[in-house]
Amino acid sequence: MSHRKFQWTGLDTAAKIFPCTSGQRDTKVFRFVCELKEPVQPQKLQEALDQTLGSFPGFQTIIKRGLFWYYLEDTDKMPVVQREYKSPCSQLYDKDVSNLLFEVTYFGCRVNLEVFHAISDGTGAMHFLRVLIFRYLKRVHPEALGGLSGLDYDASESQSMDDSFARYANYQKLPKIKKVHKTVYRLRGMRTMDYRLNVIVGTVPTKQLLNVSHSYGTSLTELICALVILAIRKEMPVKDVSRPIVLAVPINLRNHFRSASARNFFGVMDVGYDFSQGDGSLKSILAKLDQQFKAGLSPEELQYRVNQYIMLIENPLARAMILSVKDGVMRLGSYLETRKETSAVSNIGIVHMPAELRPYIEKFEVFISTQKVQMCCLTYEEKMTLSFSSAFLNTEIQKNFFRSLTNMGIPVEIDTDFFEDN
Amino acid sequence: MKYCEKCKVSVRGDRERCPLCNAVLQGEPEPSGFPELPDGHRQRRLWISILALASVSACIVCLLLNFLNRQYGPWSLFVLGGVLCMWLTLGLALYKQRNVPKTLVWEVFLVSALSVLWDYVTGWHAWSINFVIPIVCMGAMVTLVFMFRLFSVPSGSLIVYLLVDALLGIVQLMLLLTGCITVLLPSLLCVGVSLMMLAAMLIFRGRHVKEELRRRLHL
C-alpha cells in the first residue's frame, strides 16, 4: 500500500462494547451471503475484493488494546478469498492475534462476507458486499456489464470512517425510555457442540408476505416480530406464561440522521408482548407492536439512543478506568442487558442492486452469531430470506415460525448448515 | 427439491429428514448452500494429557509416601507446589501460544511472582530478587530483540513489550537503592541493559515510541 489512509482511530461509539463481549459462543460476527446464478470464480473474486477494499478504509484494520481503550490500527494485511472452511460466524477477533476483522469466502454459487461487529454494522457491511458483487460481476461479464458505471455508494473516505454518534449527539439529558420491569421470558435449551451456530434460512416470495402484512395493515418488520413472538409463545412452559416476551430490534440510525458511515450507526429498541395481559391473537400482538414501534421511532427516542452511548463513554470515571476493568464492567452490563431480552429480530431491509445485475443474482441472506435465538432478514427483488441463527440444538421456534408462514399459504424453501450425523 | 409434508416446506440439501420437525422428506435432493464441514472438535494434544497424568500420579505417590513417613515433615507439599507452578507457567504459554512475544512478557511476570513467593515461603534468602528476576528480565529483553529480527513482529507491539520489560528492569534499581538486593552483579547488569534498551529505543525509534504511547494511552 503506497499511501496510508489513516493510522489509527478509536472504535466508534457503539463498537466499544464488542471486543470485550465477544467470545467463542457469541462471536459478534455476522455473515452476509450473496448467492449468484453461476459458480464463483475465486481469482476474479479476489481481484474484486482487492479493488473494493480501497473504498472502505475501515475494513483493512486490526484491533489493538491500549491502556484505556481498544483502538483500530491501519494494517497492510490483505484478505485472501478462500473456499468456506469453517462454521458460519466463527470467531474473527482474537485478542492475542491481530488478524483482519472480516473474511470473504465462497462455496458453490455463494459469496460469504463475514464481519466482526466492531468495524461495521449490517448496513455498512451490506454496502461492502454490494460493491464487491458489483465489481466481481463486472469482471466476470465484461461484455454485458463493462459499461456500467459506479454503484450509488459514493461516500468519501472521511464520510465512511465517520463516527456518526459523535456527530449527532446533542448531550441533552432526555427522559429515560421505560423498559419492561417484569422478569422477561428467557429461552433455554441444549446448546450445540463446539460453539457451532445452528442456522436455518427460509426463502419466501416477497410479494406474498407483503400481501399478508398489508391485509393486517402493518409493516413487514412488525408482522415478522409478531410471528416470532407467537412461535416462542408455543414453546413457553405454563409456569412462564406470565413473563413477557421481549424482542430486541436494531434500528438503522442512518434512516433518521444523515450519515454515509460504513462503521456502526445503529440503536436497539425493545418491543414485546405480555400474554398474561392480552388475548394473544396475531391482531392484538400487532396492535401492541405498532404502538411500540411508533414510540421507538419517534424523534425524541431516536435522539435518546444516539445520546445514551456517548454520555456513557464520555463519563470521566468510565474513561479513566483501565481497559481490563472496563472490560469486566462492560461484560457485566451487557449480560444484564441481554437478560432483559428474549430474542432479537433484525430486518436489514431491501437490498438495492443495479437492474443490469439482476439476471446474475439469485438472492441475498444474512445472519448473526448469538447465544440464544435470533432472526435476521432482508429482501432482494422477489426473494425475501428469513434466517434464524441459534445456539440451541432444538428447532421448535423455527419450526413454529415457518409453519405459520406455510399455513398462510406462503411457500418456504429451507436451508441449513446443520447436517445429520449418520 | 426435497419436501416436508408436515411443515409444507421445500428443503435444500441431500438429507433424509426435515431440519425443522425431523419428519422423513420426499422428493429429489438439490444441493445445499452450506458445505458439510469436518467436525471442528479440537482434540487435546496427547503429550499434554500424558504430562498431566504423570504429574498427577507423582503428586499422589508423594502424598502417600509422605503419609507413610510423617516424621520428615510435610515435604510432599513442595512437590505439589512445584507441579502447580510448572502447570501455571506451561498453561499460560499454551493459552497464549498464538502470540509468542506477548507470552514471553507475561511469563516474565509470572515467573518473577512465583519465584518471590517460593523464596518467601522457604524463608527468604533473597535468591529470587538477586538472581531470578534480573536474569529472566534480561533474557526476555534479548529474546524480544532477536524475535524482532527473526520473525516479523510488528514494531509497534515490540516497542510496548520492550518498554514493559525494561520498566520491570528499572524496578530493580529501586530494590538496589533500598538495599534489598545482596548480590549486586545480576541486578546491575539488568538495570544497565534496561537503560540501554530504553536509550536505544528513544534514539533510533523515538518518533515511533511517542506515537505508540499516544495510541496506547489515549483516553
Indicate the topology.
The complex is a heterodimer of chains A (422) and B (219).
Chain A: E1 8-10, H1 18-21, E2 29-36, H2 42-53, E3 61-65, E4 70-74, E5 82-83, E6 102-107, E7 110-116, H3 122-140, H4 142-145, H5 157-160, H6 164-168, E8 198-205, H7 206-215, H8 220-233, E9 245-252, E10 266-273, H9 282-296, H10 299-314, H11 316-320, H12 323-338, E11 343-350, E12 361-368, E13 373-380, E14 383-390, H13 396-407, E15 412-416
Parallel strand pairs in A: 5-6, 9-11, 11-13
Antiparallel strand pairs in A: 1-4, 2-7, 2-12, 3-4, 6-7, 8-14, 8-15, 9-10, 13-14
Chain B: E1 2-4, E2 9-11, H1 46-68, H2 76-95, H3 100-121, H4 127-150, H5 155-177, H6 184-216
Antiparallel strand pairs in B: 1-2
Helix pairs in contact in B: 1-2, 2-3, 3-4, 3-5, 4-5, 4-6, 5-6
Write a concise synopsis of the structure shown.
The complex is a heterodimer of chains A (422) and B (219). With 422 residues, chain A is of the alpha+beta class. Chain A has 13 helices and 15 strands.
Give an overview of the whole structure.
The complex is a heterodimer of chains A (422) and B (219). Chain A folds into two domains: 8-149, Chloramphenicol Acetyltransferase, CATH 3.30.559.10; 168-351 and 370-416, 2-Layer Sandwich (Chloramphenicol Acetyltransferase), CATH 3.30.559.30. Chain A is built from 13 helices and 15 strands. Chain A has helices spanning 18-21, 42-53, 122-140, 142-145, 157-160, 164-168, 206-215, 220-233, 282-296, 299-314, 316-320, 323-338, 396-407, and strands spanning 8-10, 29-36, 61-65, 70-74, 82-83, 102-107, 110-116, 198-205, 245-252, 266-273, 343-350, 361-368, 373-380, 383-390, 412-416. Chain A is globular, with a radius of gyration of 21 Å. Chain A starts with 7 loop residues before the first strand and ends in a 6-residue tail after the last strand. Chain B has three domains: 1-33, no CATH class; 49-95, no CATH class; 100-219. Chain B has a two-stranded antiparallel ribbon with strand order 1-2. The longest helix of chain B has 33 residues, at 184-216. Chain B is an all-alpha fold and 219 residues long. Chain B has helices at 46-68, 76-95, 100-121, 127-150, 155-177, 184-216, and strands at 2-4, 9-11. Chain B is flat and about 85 Å long. Helices cover 66% and strands 3% of the residues of chain B. β15 of chain A pairs parallel with β2 (9-11) of chain B.
